[in-house]
């Protein structure tokens, strides 16, 4: 089976002051359709850098990234944005909703950016699935943290992505809400067949994934 | 924040420059008090001095000069073209004070010696002539001795209609232009001997001046009038500059609001560490005052530079050349106003500091809410109102003008802020779903949390409103006063046509295939009594005063058998013809002047026609459309009453273009040297020039407001950049292209610009309507073209400034989204 995401020997270095800083060194990883993968490690281990490179938010200093069959290194930023829009969904620790849009409108943003017709019914159904059927017209400021993250979940799934990146999806939520959001994440992974890559400090959450990548000082140790 | 402090810089700069200008004007006026008239006393009359007048002149004593002035046509032998000019034949050493500015300097002596004429610089430029070239005035062909730049005592505003041509009085007979019945003004100019003071001389002789029908002018009176006019202009421009300063203060308040919002956690920490509410508040107030000080200091420096441009801006409006000197006092006053207003306006957003709970330091989501009215807020609003009112009252001499300005300005702010709120509300609820996402998202930014839509709409809208009000009013006035004439309406007037020349002039028009559209004989007379009461008595009536100019003016009346095209009878009847012996003579009076005189149908009045009394009775009242270029009259006599009086004729025709007008004037001056022709386009041009000069000065000051609006816009975008960048990064992460992000920014700024323009247009239309209706008494006409220009230019400027200030936002790497602090 061809990998949906294939990272080979990724290295990322930055210049900081006068010194060269290697934040990721020679990391390889492969995730197939519908699979789940957790990236764990202490702060500063390179988790976020790896997630950003995997999603095409940045380019490596060396190594290759193939996402949904595309070599991201060969594409410019606009082309990578198109790939993200067509194949990828995101869930962030701090929700990242547009404050000027309602819950329903926020869910529709990825579709709107593609220029397609707005599937308002599908968006409303997704919101209903995450338990926000009665909050369609609420603005982010009118929603609790957990509710905002559920809107973000619905947004992540609206364009039926092949791969979902989640960066500390439960990091800002209390225990019960975090549990509920995590359940939804895995349920949507199962039902939609979407591959899931998540970054988390929460080892219990990471343990629910099929593959766990451990990083330390920018190197994959497991 | 420093950028925001610059938002008051332009307002301060304008105030400093105007303050320096005002002081310079007052000083120059004091220094040149007598040069503004060129003499101590000027007596003017429509009649040449007789024995009684000469005796009065002798009694007044001192040094004397005489000036005879009238309109005539000046031609240039061997060249194309003739020009209506105001001939001034001077005898004696006028001006007694100040000096004539001429080129070459010897030209003054030349014309005094009778070597030729001395013409206005503009005419010389228009016809490409200069010293030594030949000119023809009536029957006199002579040379130009030089060109005139400035003559003490003259206003140059209307010099375009009839530019001045000076000649020696001794040469006047050679022109053969003085004929009986012609419109001639005789001025006698005095340099009085030493005391008694001028005021006493005038007081002692005022009754005699009136009895002999003299208009009089004194250096003191002229200085006072001029001083008042200049003070008014300066005060008005100061108020315009003050608007720029107020906008800047709003900008600073807006910056403080953002600053405070972003630092609420810091405030809470300070409170946790034991800082009192007052000391925390004082820290932020000091920051606001520091911003005011930075902005004000920059404004003083800029103002010192701008003041050197002002003499150029006011060129053509001032009766004397000025050299503005920097006024330390003006700088201190403006600087204090800047710091003070910044502090007062900043108080409003700073009030939030008082309500921050120390708990916020522990739990960010904790919000302190207190119910009930925050009286401090109302105190601050009252303080702002008092500051604005105080400044307005300081600038205007009349309390109701200052109050009116402050109230009007408050109203404009309320309307603009109200509109902004309505727009924010409307953008949230009514943005059409069918719009592309980028447009919807851009417009949604108008109601994003901590949006600056209100501040921006006020700052951009107020500038637009100011400039457009001026433009709308100007267009309405020019259009209403000079509507595009219909084909049958006259646009050229021939005057000073003597009775024996009338048929010849008509034949000339016929030969040139120009229509004779109207004509009237004119007899000049003065009002003697109204309802049996002598004018002299009415002049002293302070209970129900009639304006002096109405009682003392020279009435140019006519006789005819019918109502003219520009008038209609509104009361009584029009008597077409009477027998010469009928008395009182049944006349019709223009309704406006009848109202001023307090007379109606059946009332009596009498005129003095060169010593003969004409007893009249008002038979009817006429409404006259003064805008039509026709011979219009306050008093019309029936045929049969005035035919034996010395008269001159006025004829009206229509010329198709400038070439036809020039040809007519050329042929006319050749055949009838004393007849003058006035082309309507010249009047239009002159008034347009005058309006343009005043308008330019006001626009120059209003520009400070517009630029302040732009600075506030830049500041608001810069402080909102973080928020925009976050949104851009999120959208880029979700798959938006750079072009889409730019389109969203474009939509936001375009939306803001269009709304500011629309608000400005609506407010300006309302203000111009009110000005037209209540001040100028003309119907308002919305100049669509000006409105459209604003509707395009304001959004273009906003988008240009917005996109320029937002450069780089669309290029932010999306990876940043993963690195944001939570």
Mean pLDDT of chain B: 82
Oligomer: heterodimer
Mean pLDDT of chain A: 88
| SS element count, helices of chain A | 7
Strand elements of chain B, count: 21
Question: Helix coverage percent of residues of chain A?
Answer: 25-40%
Amino- and carboxy-terminal Cα gap of chain A: 23 Å
Q: Approximately how much helix is present in the residues of chain B? A: 40-55%
| Count of spatially separate domains of chain A | 1
Major sheet description of chain B: 6 strands, mixed, barrel
**Top-tier CATH class of chain A:** Alpha Beta
* Number of DSSP-assigned strands of chain A: 10
Structural class of chain B: alpha+beta
Structural class of chain A: alpha/beta
Give a brief description.
Chain A contains 7 helices and 10 strands. By secondary structure, chain A is of the alpha/beta class. In chain A, α5 runs parallel beside α6.
Please characterize this protein's 3D structure.
Chain A is globular and about 50 Å long. Chain A is built from seven helices and ten strands. Chain A has helices spanning 47-54, 77-87, 103-114, 120-129, 145-157, 175-192, 203-207, and strands at 5-16, 19-31, 36-40, 62-67, 70-71, 88-91, 163-167, 195-199, 211-216, 219-220. In chain A, strand 1 and strand 2 form a beta hairpin. In chain A, the strands form two sheets. A six-stranded mixed β-sheet of chain A has the order 6-7-8-3-9-10. Chain A has a four-stranded antiparallel β-sheet with strand order 2-1-4-5, covered by helices on one side. In chain A, 35% of the residues lie in helices and 27% in strands. Chain A has 222 residues and is α/β, with parallel strands linked by helices. Chain A has a single domain (5-220), classed as P-loop containing nucleotide triphosphate hydrolases (Rossmann fold, 3-Layer(aba) Sandwich). Chain B has 822 residues and is α+β, with helices and mostly antiparallel strands. Among the domains of chain B are: 1-35 and 227-423, no CATH class; 41-191, no CATH class; 516-653, no CATH class. Chain B is built from 26 helices and 21 strands. Chain B has a six-stranded mixed β-barrel. The model of chain B has no long low-confidence stretch (mean pLDDT 82). Classes of the chains: A alpha/beta (222), B alpha+beta (822). The A-B interface holds A 48, 51-52, 55, 57-58, 77-78, 81-82, 84-86, 88, 90, 92-94, 96, 98-101, 109-110, 112-115, 118, 141, 155, 167, 171-172 and B 433, 436-437, 441, 444-445, 447-449, 727, 730-740, 813-815, 817-820, 822.
